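User: I've been going back and forth on whether these two constructs are worth ordering. Before I decide, could you fold them both?

Assistant: Sure. I'll take them in the order you sent them. The first construct and its structure tokens:
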Amino acid sequence: MARKDVPPRRDRKMQQRLARGEAAALGELYDRFASLVHSLAHRVLADEQDADAVTREVFAHVWEHPETYDPQQGPLRSWIAAVTHRVAVQRLRDREEPEQPRREELESEVRRASVAARADYIVHSMPAPLRAALDLAYFQRRDYRQTAADLGVTEDEARRRLRLGLQLLSTAHDAGTPPGYRGAV
């Protein structure tokens, strides 16, 4: 969580380089996001080979269709995550038609993966002060008083940040697509 989101200006430049067909741009993008793409695909598909195939497919899509990314809709990272989720879910659906119990299990897996992907998007899109408060409280197991002290803010401000962060995360279960998801694959 220490890493800041990439500024939209950098994302626009990357998109322009891809549109010009700069192979180096694709390599840089792959270096930045391959682990994200692979882990999201693996979370949906629970299969290493399928996750590898989805990773290749996502970067092929990015290379062939850089114009489908709109920097005004959000960071490049979020768009790539949304494309990955869409490709992985489609691959899951394209698998052999399962028997009813397996079908329900797959649908449940898709719902869980969707919620996880949306939560990941929300966490990385929320303002840094909210992320920092949640990181301290939930990953480092600090109470709101310790969080306030670590952040150098009042206890009321720490509680406010935690409450807002949790409210944002609670929307991960809501239906709908994340902002920045253009559905283009």
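The second construct, handled the same way:
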Amino acid sequence: MSKELVFGHQSPDTDAIVAAKAFSYLENKLGADTEAVALGEPNEETQFVLNHFNEPAPRVIEKAAPEVDSVMLVDHNEPQQSVSDIADVTVTHVVDHHRISGFATAQPLFYRAEPLGCCSTVIYKLFKENNVEIPAKLAGLMLSAIISDTLLLKSPTTTQTDVDVVKDLAKIADVDYQTYGLEMLKAGTNLASKSETELIDADAKSFELNGSTVRVAQINTVDLAEVFDRQAALEAAAKDENAANGYDLFLILATNILDSNSELLVVGGPTAPVEAAFGKKIENNRLSLPGVVSRKKQVVPQLTEAFNA
């Protein structure tokens, strides 16, 4: 049996890194030979989580084919979000909680996708179904991933399953998830130490929408003014990213994790579908989006419908 690599999406968030570790652990318990790796360095929130549970960061890879023939994907399926040479390896497993887009394989595979708030919630269910015990440290990591993806269970992506799983994982890990969760989320909002490019690259995904390549970044904060005091520099960084990577449109979703409101910074074009998606006019390259916190549920589906209209 040859070794396989397990990884989440590019610009990994906490769930992308934790889900890879959790699914790799499960697969190895079931007899596979896998290694959890990452397609980028951990962001500040994820590093806080790893440090809290004394867990090493995964090895970062740029290509998979030089090492292995096959891979397992977690927390993503779209090729443009995956490893650069994804077309050169066989995907044997996918565990995800996002839309399916642009994904095809030549061979049958294991595919598990559920509309839950976090990929680690799906993996928790796989542990239970296979009667594999979740160690306390891994439970803490998985708990952190769900807190991150659901903004401490306040995101509209949150399901009752996510709530139940958080409570169970908190017991296993012996963690007060409310207190820990807020501390963890705030650890990811230290913006002053980051450059504009770092801010827009830390949590960003690319989407192909009716012939346009749209990059959507999300910045979590406790003060939207702290983000938009740097608007001109953020716009310049986004324009550079558009030019360097062929993005048509760069959208920066700044989200206040305390009051669950966001503001969208729009760089590039076309902009008409963005206005149509949210029923508002862009002013000063910005759109106010009260109550919007989820890129997956409250931004990308609306953009997809508007671009395809």
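Notes on the second construct follow. The first strand starts at residue 4 and ends at 7. The chain has a mean pLDDT of 96.
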